Amino acid sequence: RGFSTAQPPPNSAMGVADALGAVSGAFGAVGGMVLPVAAPVYALIVWLLNEISSAFSVYVFGTCIGLLLGATAVAAMRGSLARADAEATRKAKVAAADAQKSRRDGAIPPLPIPPDVLAEALRHLPRWTKEPDVSRASWLNNLLDALWPHVDTSVSQVIRDSVEPMLRSLVPPLVSWIGFEKVTLGPTPPVVGGVKVMGSNSEEVMLELEVVFASGADVVLAAYVFGVRVPVRVHDLQLRANVRVTFTPLVDQLPCLGGLEVSLMSLPQHADVGVSIPPGIDLMSLPGAHSLLRLALWKFVAPLMVYPAKMTVPIMENSGIEPTSTGMIKLSVLGGRGFAARAKLAGSGAGAARNERRATTMNGGGDFKSSFPKMPLGGLNSLVASRYLVQLHTRESRKITLASKSSDAPTWDETHHFLTNPDACLTATVMTTNLKELGRCEIPLRRLVADDRARKTTLLHIPLGDPKPYLVPLPVPKKPVSYTRVTQEELDALAEDHEMALEKHALELATLRVNALDAATRPSPLADVPVITCELEFTPLGLEEKTSSSNDATPDSASESASEEEGDDADERRGILTVFVTRGVRVLSEATNGETRPCATATCAGQTYTTEAPLEKTKNPIWDEEFLFFNVAPSETLRLDVRDGNAKGEFLGGFDLAVREVAANKELSEMFRLTGVSNAAHVFLKARFAYMS
Prior knowledge:
alpha+beta, single chain, four-stranded antiparallel beta sheet
């Protein structure tokens, strides 16, 4: 009742309907305009959503499958690792149990190292761990470690002094200077992994060394081309090789090693080096550089260093080898005189004046005065007190001692052969039986072994005088007053003084030897010194063979011999044949088939030697005697006969040995059967041949 509801007028419904129609018409008009545009957009959105859903489905599906497969693989791997760990644990427990059991049994447990790992490790171990005949070389490594700084300094200086002059003589004129700015072998010495001593029948020592060299070697060679410095640096040398070192010859004088021969048993197992040029480019890092290095080693180093090629390094002068011989002298020692003490000696009071007058009278009243050194009185007295020995030699390596005597005028009647050359000297010494030297004489052989003296005999009266003038030591260089303040002029002056002192010493010794030769070739010997009388005959090498061949040659064969002269040159060379007659086996008499006193007679090149016969009869004699045959040609034959008692006794067998066979092998050691007899007798003989030039 408080409110009243107003009824719309009839015309209001019609207005709403019209409005709604207008709105619907507007929407229809708008929809007609929007629908052509919205339909494609809608279709595109629907397509994109479908594609995204498909890709997402594939991704989700693939991820699930991947997770599933990954989980399966991880599980399988973990299971495999677990099984491997379990197996390793089981093996470790078994190995530990076996080791414990072995310890209880006293056996050495096996190494817990796989065989493949052990084989790889053995490749890098030194040789002494793998080969039983290779010895450790720790002492040699310690010696190299101590000497390496001095070796580095010496080798560096030798490289500078020897290589630089050669390089400067070879470079073109556009190079103003070339030389080494730095040369060092590095602080680390080479390491010797093992030493193997090789057996040899010759007089030499042969070693095989495993050398590993990985030092910081650094060599800088610089050249200035138009004032521009162009350096080349060689550094970081690495080398591993098996080296054979042969110490030969072995001599009797310190350091007892005449020289050594070095050769590689094969190309280095490992070789590397750095070669750098500006601006710091290492040429060895270029492709194929190491192949070129191996090729260079094979082409240049192998012909010079790989065995049997060798590099000879002399240690002593002339490698301790005597100078090349040009001939042989045959020295027949007849006897001597004046070996007893005399009251009237030259150089002692009135006796000297009387001997001086005697020498003047012997020379026809001239002013001759002997310049030969007189032996001291004490030396002559000692000759009477005991027996004395006389020793002869032309080379220090071979000295011949004559039979000991005690008389004033001894007689020897011994013949010996010596190798010689124009610069050699015949040295004669007299000494006591305890080798104390009392007298000495050195005679130069240049005039006695000249070509015109071949096959000629010279009578010598060798005087034995005071040995002191001959044994004067070489002058020692003087030392500077202060090494800290020494100048180059002082060093040059000291060197010049030492050179003059050496020349003076050589002149005095040469004068002394010439005076000795003049005294030895005089018709009458000196009366105031002990004298050895001998005959000397010189034979050049190869003269005998050439003479005999020329005498037997006919005019028709002269041209053939001249054409074959070059081919037979090796045969004309002569040498020394050393024969060791050791023992005989089953040497019996052919007539009685019983034991005898056999002696062996060896003949070659006109020289004959006979062994001593045993004191008692035997079928297995032992001689152990050595004979030297000089001036032997390889074309000759060694003849050995075995006879009873002496060289003219009953013939018990013999054999021939071609010297050519010995020369080809240098040394031959064999049991030879005796021919000419029916029993199976043998002689053990060892022969060695060495050329004299």
